[in-house]
Amino acid sequence: MMESYISVLTKGACQSEENGTFLCRDYDQLKAYTSGSIKDVILQFGMETIILYTALMLKRRIVVFHPKLEVVQEFTRVLPTLVWHRQDWSVLHPYVHLIQAETDALRTCPGYVAGFHNSDVSNRSDLYDVYVNLAESSISVSQTAKEALTLGKLHKEMGQLMVHSAEDADKSESQVIKDISMKTREILSILTSFAEVTNDSDRPTINLERLKQRKFPPATQNFLFHLGAAEQMLLT
Predict the structure, then answer these.
(1) Which residues contact 172 (CB under 8 A, 6 or more apart)?
(2) Is residue 196 within 8 Å of 210, Cβ to Cβ?
(3) Which of 41, 106, 120, 146 has the most CB atoms less than 10 A away?
């Protein structure tokens, strides 16, 4: 087994008489990332999808509940496509039991998408900033996260783009992802437009004073500030 693992790691392939041939090129990673349907997610929640988008952008904690585990897993694996520029599926915890060992481990993560099939998780507001009840097609924001997840004009524009793109029957899943990603890059370009590289850091940083000078609407300013923190761009 170790020999096969090393062969795959170094050569992208392994072969044996007992197990046949395995080739990495036969398993496209991007195809795996887009195997779910982001269109279905957007069509289910409409403009409320922007709450999920914002929570993911700000690396907040999302808990998803449905009594059927396969429904939870199918839904959760799609969500990282909303923040395609990161291509980070490590935030997924698609099946978490409501036991202390697993919830303690979850709390060590700065942001995540966690799936549960135990309805009691709705009472565990210590575990989430955003709670998604798939069985009822509802999304709620915890009291402690309402300030960070305040929505404004920028969010409305993104929400409208997502819904319009998802409702276009001629657009494929990858095209919808591309539409969202392009708009996301526009938002990130706004953030970097007033960032500076200081002597203390080799990466662009922002601070609240420079942000205030741009005179954004309050909700946009709030979002960009928290996004700067999520992107590790805040000047400390």
Answers:
(1) none
(2) yes
(3) 41
Task: Please tell me the distance from the alpha carbon of residue 159 to that of residue 154, in angstroms, as a whole number.
Answer: 9
Burial (0-12, 13-18, 19+ Cβ within 10 Å), 107: exposed
d(CA 59, CA 28): 26
d(CA 165, CA 64) in angstroms, rounded, equals 24
DSSP state for residue 47 in the 8-state scheme: G
Q: Token pair of 54, please?
A: 């914002």
Per the CB < 8 A criterion, the answer to whether 129 and 60 are in contact is yes
Q: What is the dihedral of CA 197, 199, 200, 203, to 10 degrees?
A: 20
pTM metric for this prediction: 0.85
Here the tokens at position 63 are 């808990």
Please determine, for residue 203, whether its predicted confidence score (pLDDT) is greater than 80: no
